[in-house]
């Protein structure tokens, strides 16, 4: 069952009872909420399948483009589950919009989590880059089997592109924010990889487990509380790095702002948050070619025969 925790009338976390492990559970699944991502989702799927993701659970927020066609072209039915997820709900007492992404993550754990050793909760503009080995399974060895791993955003900016470049996203953007742990910016946050049969608390950027509560680890297995992971000492990208291609080109950033965010009631608030984040990224950018080097070294095909 779901349980709501609220603070200052804002939904913070969902409490759940962990699912039972299924016989022969194995592998890593990705859970993502998507809407009209046909331009980007093929590269994202091809990369993550190449690094060992077993299954993609896609929560589709009413896409009107070819997103689902692309997914079905690239993935087999054994690799893809699509859940319709046009989620618009408000708390009746506070009128606050409930975070549909948060609810989707809880739904995925409760309904599918027993099948997998790990579930990763990311967006289509976020890539899980192994820094140790060639697969996510190899990279996750650095965490020592801990059930709750937090990966800081490595936020990439425009990299000088005013319009969408012809090459894949992960090969086109090499300039990212210098300090992923800076706390006074919207450009700082985490995404998580968890053992789903241990999860008792769910939010978009933070999870709890029944044995360790809100204790989480970085990719190197160092333990911190949920609050303390925001300290500079938590930072590591020795084994696994989360690349967030936040802005892409200037053209695409404007398109992103115009689309808005599906689960935000204020378009102006969203616009100001995005513009503030990209200003910070661009003002504090360093070169990071780790993704480019990894894709080239491992000869990963990011596009089909016909570029979309």
Report the structural category.
Answer: alpha/beta
Order of helices and strands: EEEHEHEHEEHEHEEEEEEEHHEH
Beta-strand percentage?
25-35%
In what order do the strands lie side by side in the largest sheet?
5-4-3-6-10-8-15-7
In the predicted model, the low-confidence regions spanning at least 5 consecutive residues are: 1-11
Radius of gyration: 18 Å
Number of discrete helical segments: 8
**Average predicted local confidence, pLDDT:** 91
**What is the overall silhouette?**
globular
The total count of strands amounts to 16
As a percent range, the share of helical residues equals 10-25%
Distance between the termini: 42 Å
User: What characterizes the major β-sheet?
Assistant: 8 strands, mixed
If you had to describe this structure to a student in words, what would you say it looks like?
This protein has helices at residues 41-50, 67-74, 100-112, 136-139, 169-172, 250-259, 267-283, 290-297, and strands at residues 3-7, 10-15, 28-34, 53-60, 80-84, 118-121, 126-130, 148-156, 175-177, 190-194, 199-202, 207-209, 216-217, 223-224, 240-245, 285-287. By secondary structure, the chain is of the alpha/beta class. Helix 1 (41-50) runs parallel beside helix 2. The longest helix has 17 residues, at 267-283. The protein is globular. Residues 1-11 have low confidence and may be disordered.
């Amino acid at each position: 069952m779901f349980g709501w925790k609220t603070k200052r009338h804002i939904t913070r976390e969902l409490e759940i009872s962990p699912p039972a492990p299924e016989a022969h559970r194995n592998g890593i699944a990705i859970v993502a909420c998507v809407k009209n991502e046909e331009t980007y989702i093929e590269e994202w799927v091809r990369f993550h399948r190449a690094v060992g993701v077993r299954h993609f659970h896609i929560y589709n927020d009413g896409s009107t483009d070819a997103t689902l066609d692309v997914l079905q072209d690239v993935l087999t039915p054994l690799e893809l589950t699509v859940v319709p997820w046009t989620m618009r709900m408000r708390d009746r007492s506070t009128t606050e919009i409930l975070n549909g992404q948060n609810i989707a993550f809880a739904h995925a754990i409760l309904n599918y989590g027993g099948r997998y050793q790990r579930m990763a909760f990311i967006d289509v503009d976020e890539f899980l880059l192994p820094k140790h080995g060639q697969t996510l399974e190899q990279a996750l060895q650095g965490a020592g089997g801990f059930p709750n791993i937090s990966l800081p955003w490595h936020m990439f900016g425009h990299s000088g592109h005013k319009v969408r470049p012809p090459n894949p996203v992960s090969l086109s953007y090499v300039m990212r924010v210098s300090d992923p742990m800076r706390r006074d910016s919207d450009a700082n946050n985490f995404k998580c990889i968890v053992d789903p049969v241990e999860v008792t608390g769910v939010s978009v950027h933070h999870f709890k487990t029944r044995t360790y509560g809100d204790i989480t680890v970085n990719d190197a297995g160092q333990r911190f509380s949920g609050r303390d992971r925001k300290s500079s000492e938590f930072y590591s990208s020795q084994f696994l790095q989360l690349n967030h291609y936040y802005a892409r080109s200037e053209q695409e950033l404007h398109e992103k702002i115009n689309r808005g965010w599906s689960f935000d009631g204020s378009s102006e608030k969203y616009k100001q948050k995005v513009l503030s984040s990209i200003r910070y990224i661009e003002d504090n950018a360093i070169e990071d070619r780790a993704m480019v080097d990894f894709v080239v070294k491992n000869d990963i095909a990011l596009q089909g025969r016909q570029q979309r």
